[in-house]
Amino acid sequence: MSLARRLGRVREYLIRRVREKPQLQGTWDGPAWAHAEVAQIASFHPAGSDHRPQTRVKMLHDDDGLYVIFRVEDRYVVCTRSENQTLTSKDSCVEVYLQPFPGQKGYLNFEMNCGGALLLFYILDPVRSNPGIFKHKKIVPQRLIETMRIYHSLPQTLPAEIDGPVEWTVEYFVPCSLFEEYVGPLPAAEERRWRGNFHKCADDSSHPHWGSWSAIGEELNFHLPKYFGEFRFES
Q: In CATH, what number is assigned to the domain containing residue 134?
């Protein structure tokens, strides 16, 4: 057992098994999501503004894949990017990083803005070789992104920043086949010990912020796997 685990510093999240398939309509309190564990993004980096949006996330799984829903109580919301594989983290954005085989292979960074646009890489080496460029990554092609199903409560883009209070939701489904394209066959649920993190950011907002579920340390860099928490799957 690692020192971090003995000291209770490793965050854990249990991905419960689906009892009723989510309909991908943004129903956070609906029956499909009622038994899912809630994770709170509450560790905000001091480099950000004083805006600390309440951001919660749930995940479920079944034999077909993974379901994710975020609910954000926000302000200063920006959304200018409607195309996939653009810099969605500049907009009001929520993220899930998932590493199916810790210590062996890379991780996938699902970075979705409030309008449902997605940046998604398979990152094998997160060291920055140039600004914004990773030393070794694979860009997930559109044909694989199209195997996902995505719901977003706000329009694809916003004409101007929403400075008043607004609640928004994104919800999506990721098939197992997308993960297996990069990491190979997934073991049975009870054998899975994934690592990863949840994030909330908005680089281009008038009140930028960078929040995490598992705290990232002093450096403002979400792409440090040593800070990932653990994900277990209910069998």
A: 2.60.40.1190
